User: Fold these one by one.
Assistant:
Number 1:
Amino acid sequence: MKQLLLKYMTRLSSLSEEEQHVILDEILVEEYRKGTVLLRQGAVPDKCYFVLKGCVRQHAVDAMGREITSNFYTEEQAISIFNAHKPDKSSEYTLTCLEDCVMVVGPLDNEREMYAKYTQLETMTRRMIEENFGQVQEEFAAFIASSPEERLKTLVQKRPGLLSRVPQHQLASYLGMTPESLSRIKKRIYREYEEPGL
């Protein structure tokens, strides 16, 4: 599993092979059962994660009491809650394992110490965040400008595995539609693909 991290270290940093292996030895890899809540809405985060295996859902309950899914994290994705702008540093989201997960766990209170020890690790982390943030910006802009059907088609194209890994009502929430609308749109899209010549 740690080979995935080694790939990122090689691509995004100039750490020597020896430094890479020392860091890998120090990194904490944890297993979590399906249904485990990693962070609750309103709590102060004390860890960040990198998914090696599994799926984690990011969701929140809004002022009307509705549960809204805002992201799904799967293999090779980092999970960080950016809340430094909030006076109480609390999370606006809950993170829940939708599957049994294997993740690298980074205690936030240990972060500065690791960065001081391995300066290239901070560079690598920053590059990963920049890549992820750029992708999130693009996806958000496309989401706002697209119809529910276009959102589903984009999801099928970019993250097809989510359709079989995530409960339909959570997927519908993530796409900004009702489960009934999602079901209708899925049927329409599948019919299009089954038509001759497609």
Number 2:
Amino acid sequence: MRYRAVLCGCGAMAKGWLRALTESELLRVKVEIVGLVDLDQATAEALATEFNLGGIVIGTDLPTVLRESRADLLFDIVVPAARRAVVAAGLAHGCHVLSEKPMAASLGEARELRRLAAAASRIHAIVQNRRFISGVRRIRRLIESLVLGELTALHCDFFLGPHFGGFREQMDNVLLLDMAIHTFDAARFMSGKDPLAVYCHEYNPKGSWYRHGAAANAIFEFSDNVAFTYRGSWCAEGANTSWESAWRITGSKGTLLWDGGDRFDAKVVTGQEGFMRTVEPVAVPDTEDLADTNGHASVIENFIRAIDAGTVPETDGSDNIKSLAMVFGAIDSARDGKRVTIAA
């Protein structure tokens, strides 16, 4: 089946979506853009011209464009404050919906969208593209293999100094709300564990060019007595980590270091004597399916395959709400100065 899709929100992010749709052979075959929606008609028209989208429905009213285009899918790329209304409109029309992150502007809205999707018997999934990269998939396979023994902890450092300008520099909780969900979701995915509680200290360091919350340290309690610690800053100049963070993952038999790029260093204990036991390197397995390592395009492909098969996509809202709960749990903990139980 070829799906008719409307894209809502025609700013800079929309171009990444349209490139992903054109770069994937599967998506070129399975998805046809039939409508664009934006608060500014001229912005939508300019996007249509740039990507040679002729003969489609363009407008400022989402329900009208969905109806006139006879859409099957809605791609939601609006600002978080508008997400609830946009997703609700798509589900009411009978569309499956794929949204930009975050899933919602609050946990209450996220839970409401889960109810609406269930009532409509439609999928509402989220673009959590960072879990569709080779390193994250490979580490999950290593953890599942038990080569490191039983998983005990994941630790990550995220230190960058990007000067975005614009709305991010004026946001509350900018690091936790706008970026950390990628890392939190990766920790959940790689470990296969559920978040239970968090204690977080959030602050704005001296010299920060952000208005609020450019740095945070968080300790998460995961299921099965696994710990996840996060140290992050978006105003740390001079020694950048990868955008995927730098990781140390420990098991009962060994440790994996990952730089967030192409360098892995995994060692397990082989000796049985001595003050410090002998260790030897082990290989990190390759990904089973290279189609799952193309970031944004892989998320959309996973979404389409799930619709075709009548299954649940990997980044369905029923899963992604757990990562969102980690974000809001950390924000609540930082605000109140206490450990917070996480409940999605």
